[in-house]
Please model this.
Amino acid sequence: AFFSLILAPTLWDPVTAMLNTTPLMLAVMVGAIQNGVSKAAKYSLFDPCKEMAYIPLDAEARTKGKAAIDVIGNPLGKSAGSFIQQGL
Model:
């Protein structure tokens, strides 16, 4: 919906007329809702699953593992994802 509001705004004329707004403002609202849903899904689904991976470890290994992932793994993953996205 977001990209169609930007690339083909005339398709949304009935909706924008009903809501008395512009396609750009509707795109901003849809983008904000999409971002909110994405963050909610991350914090409610991904983070608990990530924490479950540490349950079988003892306390020392859990602490070291979390630190290694948070300090090294997350930035490397984001950088790798950025390079992949630039290649597309």
Notes: The CA atoms of residues 77 and 83 lie 10 Å apart. The chain has four helices and no strands.
